[in-house]
Amino acid sequence: TRPRKEVMKVSDGSLLGEPGRTPLSKKEGVKWQRPRLTRQALMRCCLVKWILSSAAPQGSDSSDSELELSAVRHQPEGLDQLQAQTKFTKKELQSLYRGFKNECPTGLVDEDTFKLIYSQFFPQGDATTYAHFLFNAFDADGNGAIRFEDFVVGLSILLRGTVHEKLKWAFNLYDINKDGYITKEEMLAIMKSIYDMMGRHTYPILREDAPLEHVERFFQKMDRNQDGVVTIDEFLETCQKDENIMSSMQLFENVI
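The line above is the sequence of EF-hand domain-containing protein; the predicted structure tokens follow.
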């Protein structure tokens, strides 16, 4: 049997791999099977729910042919390029684009929109801070607005990227000031924002000091040279070697 840590190389729809899943074959010559953007597989993702609920015509569960017909009118520029950059099919990109344009006619998403989305999906907590951090992770050039292209490239990594790609994205989320290092304060700020958003409905019920304990434990393992900051290499190495950290980071699956 394989060692367990081999089991989380690739996943299709979960954020950081599912411990019980068998990895897709990585043998040469085997074509990577692109999973479909089925509602069942991806509707766990808040951003996809938001987009696809707007993409579907009101009051109907539209059939594939209807989707294709309406997709013709909604072609993002550079569709072929986006298809090459992401792990979405052409049809999936059209469907996402239609919803995106319905929700954001200007073609841009701002931070307030993110806050609105997450407050709707997590009414039991306060999602403001988490939405702020998540928005900044998507807003690669830091100009306060996210284009469809950036949005869909980020979604592709989070939903269908390799474990390595997802971890690099998570590092970027934790690195709040984008200086290439994660400090304990940054990690605590992100963790606390997630706990605040989840509210009292998390299971098991969380104590007030849970985020701090969580971060102390993670940081001790990750900061290998004990210099008070975590580099991307330390982060990737520790996360991929430590099953507890990998499974803890799957908390993210519920909050994207």
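Note on the example: The first strand starts at residue 108 and ends at 109. The first helix runs from residue 39 to 42.
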